[in-house]
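User: I'll paste a sequence; please echo it back and then give the predicted structure.

Assistant: Echoing your sequence first, then the prediction.
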Amino acid sequence: MDTKPQIKSQPVSPQPPRLLDQVRQVLRLKHYSLKTEQSYLYLDLRKESSVWHNSDMATNTKHKVTRLDYCQFLLSSQINYTLTHFADHSEHFSHDAINRYMAGDHLPPRLVWENVRGQIVTSPNGILIFDDMVLDKAESQKIELVRWQWSGNAKQVIRGIGVVTCVYVNPDTDQFWIIDYRIFAPDTDHKSKLDHLREILTNAVAQKHLPFRVVLMDTWYAAKQVLLLIEQLGKVYYCPVRENRLVSLSRADKRYYRVDTLLWSQDELRAGRLVHVRDFPAGHQVKLFRLTLSTERTDYIVTNDLAQDWTPATQEVWGWRPKIEAFHREDKQLTGIESCQCRRARIVRNHIGCAMLVWVRLKQVAHETGQTIYQVKHGLLSEYLRQQLRSPMVRMALA
């Protein structure tokens, strides 16, 4: 009887984990995002197989984050404008890739002009309006550009990022466009808001060659150096002054009075009055108008248009100023300009620049389609709503 030799089983030694499994384990210990993990594994696969063909290089270049990609995200997203939200809904870009792009790009304010100049319908009666908006960052402690500053919207001092803006208005067509902006960061560039206004105004005349006649601004910018610059450029300004601004009533009168203590005759209420503002050059006069807007609000408007002699006409010109407030409201509500949560100043600057470009595009589409800018933005959800009504992903149930 044949007997087969007994073969002793050898203990099986555990196989060492594969390289990709080791990489995956390290990435997860460091809490990297899923898309970042996939990106690293993809690179390791390419290294292992040594496949570095031109087609692969072309594919890698094709999926590189661009300015257009980020602007498209801001235009398409409705509520969440963070880099994480972008990465979670992108097939090609990880959070790290988007962050690297935002940190490496540079969007100067002139890009707004380069994109909007073809849309502007100019007029010799054009109006430039200056104001600043504060991007609310009340809960932010580490963002580099955030500082305490007054917010006209909040009516108090808040933590935020100040942005000086300039809007061009065509009063003949009732249209307006953003043409320039500056980020208020005195710790970096040592410039005040008045410096930014003078820079934008000079640029509009000397480089943009925009035809306009009138400049409007808030009380914050009614400083001597700003008003005299506007006069040197041959333009007309209308701006409010604070109630405690001191003026004299004639060249011979050396006494100064607060504007809210002046007595007004009926003729002066109708046609305005000539005054000399304290600290202005000797003999310099402006026209002062008193506008009673309500029982609780009275504005005092000064202008260098000494031929203006009709208070309702002054009120009509000043009535164009809310256009820049409309721009601020649209920019905040539709582009996510306040929603960047990154800390680095360069990323925040680029985010603000992209948000401005998105507003320019929305404005263009709204004009071409005869819609409001809100209809264009919210209309992106129309097809989604129709699809959900036909076949809802989450069905309603009642008890």
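Residues 367 and 373 are 8 Å apart (CA to CA). The chain is about 40% helix and 20% strand.
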